[in-house]
Structures are given as structure tokens and as C-alpha cells.
From TrEMBL:
Residue ranges constituting the Alpha galactosidase A C-terminal domain according to the UniProt record: 325-408
Reactions listed under catalytic activity: Cleavage of non-reducing alpha-(1->3)-N-acetylgalactosamine residues from human blood group A and AB mucin glycoproteins, Forssman hapten and blood group A lacto series glycolipids; a neolactoside IV(3)-alpha-GalNAc,IV(2)-alpha-Fuc-nLc4Cer(d18:0) + H2O = a neolactoside IV(2)-alpha-Fuc-nLc4Cer(d18:0) + N-acetyl-alpha-D-galactosamine; a globoside IV3GalNAc-Gb4Cer + H2O = N-acetyl-alpha-D-galactosamine + a globoside Gb4Cer; a neolactoside IV(3)-alpha-GalNAc,IV(2)-alpha-Fuc-nLc4Cer(d18:1(4E)) + H2O = a neolactoside IV(2)-alpha-Fuc-nLc4Cer(d18:1(4E)) + N-acetyl-alpha-D-galactosamine
One GO biological process term: glycolipid catabolic process
Organism: Fregetta grallaria (White-bellied storm-petrel)
Gene designation: Naga
Protein's name in the database: Alpha-galactosidase
Amino acid sequence: LGAPAAVGTMGAAVLSGLVLTLTLTLPALALENGLALTPPMGWLAWERFRCNVDCRADPRNCISEMLFFEMADRLAEDGWRELGYKYINIDDCWSAKQRDAAGRLVPDPERFPRGIKVLADYVHARGLKLGIYGDLGTLTCGGYPGTTLDRVKQDAQTFAEWGVDMLKLDGCYSSGEEQAEGYPEMARALNATGRPIVYSCSWPAYEGGLPPKVNYTILAEVCNLWRNYDDIQDSWDSVLSILDWFSANQDVLQPAAGPGHWNDPDMLIIGNFGLSYEQSRSQMALWTVMAAPLLMSTDLRTISPSAKEILQNRLMIQINQDPLGIQGRRIVKEKSHIEVFLRPLSQAASALVFFSRRTDMPFLYTTSLAKLHFPEDAVYEVQDVYSGKIISGLKTGDSFSVVINPSGVVMWYLYPVALPAQPWHIVRQEAPGEGFYPVL
């Protein structure tokens, strides 16, 4: 479970070439589209704005072109885009209630008067990408026209002509048989358009998320990312229920993830109403260690500085976007209600999350890297992901303590300075006041 074994002393160019080769060869199965080699990052309307279509009473918050134009501006101007938050994704309730005379999906004419193509062009001009929502069934979950099996190719072509870059395909109002036929058919139809479109499917969530009903080998060949479990709600209980399900089933889920194909525990709700500051830091760290897509669902026009700081943590994003694409696992569950999660990273680095489920007071947790199955006789430099503080020369056998706030986390990034019987050439670039970040 520990950090990958060192491959000997090598120059930065050789190492980055190796990582690049791994990155390019691993995701060949996923849709054969070469997309989503790291977890997609961006913004998604659903959790925060739902199916609010009353633009007369609530023009700023309804599902309309204005909402997406304004969120695109925020992604482009407030530092999100440069950090990797590139996708601006429309969810349900965008379309008219009927298809047009030719059977095509059309946006609601009052709420999207200029059409999706104009919105896509605007988003692209801002250096961003546009996502849209469909449903493999007679109706979407919100009651708008769905994509029945006879419409799959037509709708894929429509989305491509509009300039869409990601499709989230839900599964309301369809049978298991229709989903088994329709989800792979949409993958083929998207590829056939010739436009690179990341494919997010909700297929496993409608089949209980687990074998034998869900075949993750097939899923990884069909979809770039997929929803496995329940929709997230704006509450800590919801975050914990998702985390519990992912942890309980990690032996099934963890091997299915990798470059081009990701488990999706649903949106980041940081910046909304349901999470405390500590809980917000916890969701960000836990989603990162699970190699989850980072799709925010909050109002970027009014987001607080503290929520923005959590979501824009550079080292956190670097860990989430690690090119090896290995999903982390829970490796310790203590009677004291402390849990430890580990994610192996490229260049023999690792991320550790110490998570407290306690509700009383800060807890002093003592352990060692040896107890967490790191290689014997290794030495690490450690950076606290949130505080930036650095611990130098931490040996595998050294005992250490961390103070974890209730429902909070301490997250570490560990980088080897010496590995057993093998020198390790460290390549790093200094960032003033921010500690170090490895060159990937």
C-alpha cells in the first residue's frame, strides 16, 4: 500500500517521459477518445441551482443562459480556469418541453434565446469547455424530453454540432435493459461525431453501483466517468453517506478508476449552506484522495474567501490531477473515530488524509509511517497541504502526532528524499512561501 518503489536515480526529463508514457498508455480502453486522463474539473449547476426555471421571479438564479454566461465569466476571471477548472456544465431543465419538428432537442426559447451554440462559443472564447445534460429514457429526471434508444445518434450529433465538450447522461425513466443497450450506444455515437466529448454516465447508480449488476470492466470501456451512488445533498450527513459507501466498497471501486475512467462521488458542495469550514476542508481532501472529479456546485458570484481558498488550493489540485490516476483507499479505521486514507502518487510520492469523525474536541492522533505500511528505512519530506508547513527527514519508523479538529482533516503530501538501498534524485522547484512542488 505504501509509496511505489523507487526506480533509481534518473534525470527529470527521463522521469517525466516515463510518467507521460504511462499516462498515454493506461487509458487506451476508455472510449478510445483519449479524454479525461485526469479527473475533470469545473462547475456544475445541479446541486446549487437544481431545476429553478422561474426566471420572472428569480432571474439571477434560474436555469438560463445568463447563469452560465456569468459563471463562465467567474471561472475565467477569478483564477479558476488557470487551476484547471475548465468545464462549465448545464444540468437538467435546460430544454424546451417538446422536440422540434425534425425531432431535435432544442433549448427553452425564453431561458436560452440565443441557443446552446452561442453559449458554447462564448465559453470557448473564455478558454473553457461546455458540458450539457441528457437522460437515457423517455423523460429526464426533471420531466423534460429524454433520449430514447432511437434518438441516441441524433442527440449525439446535435450536441456535437452545438460545440458541447461533455455529456452527462442520466438514467431516469428507463429500464435496465434499455440502459445496457443505450449507454454503450451513446459512447459509440459520441465517438462517431468526430468531436471530443467527455462522457459522464449515471449507469451504475441506477443498478445499485455494485457487481454482479455493474460490470466495472465494461463501464471503464464505455464511460469517462460515472456516478456510482446517490445524489449529493447540501449536508454533512450526505457527504458522510457517500464516503461510507465508497469506503465500504473500495475493493470493487478502486481498481476501476484510472486515466480516462473515474468513479464520481458527485459534486463539491463547498461554498453553499450545509458544511462548516472544517467539513468543507474535509470534503475537498477526501474527494482529492479518491481521485474524484472536482465539479463545484456553488454560486461563484458570491462565494466566500474561505471556501474559495479551499477550492483553489494548488497542492490539493496537483494531487487530485496526479498523472498516475490511482484512486486512494481508506487504510485505517480506529475505535477513536479517526480514519486514514492513502493515495499513491507519481514519483514515489503519496497523499495521506487523517480524518476525524469525532464531534467533541480536537484529537491528538499518534502513529508512524511504518504502521501505515510505508517501506522500511525510507525518509520523506512532508508538506501539510492546507497549512503549507514542511516536516523534513521523517523516517518510516518515526512516531508522529497530528491534531485533527472534529469532522476535520489533516492532509499530508509526502515526497521521498531517500528510499531503501536506492538513492533518489529529487527534482523540485521552489515556490516562494509555498514550500515545494515536485515537477510532474
